[in-house]
Amino acid sequence: MLQRTFSIIKPDAVNRNLEGEILARIQKAGLRVVAMKKIHMTREQAEGFYHVHKERPFFGSLTEFMCSGPVVCSVLEGDDAIARYRELMGATNPANAAEGTLRKDFALNLEANSVHGSDAPETAAFEISYFFNALEITG
Ligand code: IDP
């Protein structure tokens, strides 16, 4: 089933100039980049993106981190893209991430874990539309 998911290469990875390496790993995994932009989020934009976490204790720190520097947002397309990208990313905490995953190889810690990927079709739809309009997504 052809599916789209939303990806962010987070500030810790962009700061270390890793976006090319991470995008290459995404493409080698067979996912196609159908939209992409580099942005520097405001605090309000980061809070809106992570609104589902607003009651969590790490919300303030996470949203501060996400607007601490530029990020690379993209829309990825492929068969079963949501689950496949989650698998490529690895566990949220890099200490638990499997060998060969992006978080195992690049993440600094639980918060600065280098990549974000949607966890379900509904969140993918919300996240894609939060950052991209229809004209910015190629077929
Ligand atoms: P996910 O990114 O693997 O889907 P979520 O539980 O949705 O994980 O958490 C969103 C993001 O919040 C994580 O990627 C990580 O950057 C941050 N985060 C999650 N749990 C913690 C925590 O306990 N302390 C600090 N940051 C956290």
From TrEMBL:
PROSITE patterns documented for this protein: NDPK (PS00469), NDPK_LIKE (PS51374)
Alphabetized UniProt keyword annotations: ATP-binding, Cytoplasm, Kinase, Magnesium, Metal-binding, Nucleotide metabolism, Nucleotide-binding, Phosphoprotein, Transferase
Residues involved in ATP binding: K10, F58, R86, T92, R103, N113
Domain Nucleoside diphosphate kinase-like: 2-139
Keyword Transport in annotation: no
Top-level class of the enzyme under EC nomenclature: transferase
Record's keyword annotation contains Metal-binding: yes
GO molecular function annotations of the record: ATP binding; metal ion binding; nucleoside diphosphate kinase activity
Listed InterPro entries: NDK-like_dom (IPR034907), NDK-like_dom_sf (IPR036850), Nucleoside_diP_kinase (IPR001564), Nucleoside_diP_kinase_AS (IPR023005)
NCBIfam families according to UniProt: PRK00668.1 (NF001908)
Subunit structure: Homotetramer.
Protein's name in the database: Nucleoside diphosphate kinase
Organism listed in the record: Desulfovibrio psychrotolerans
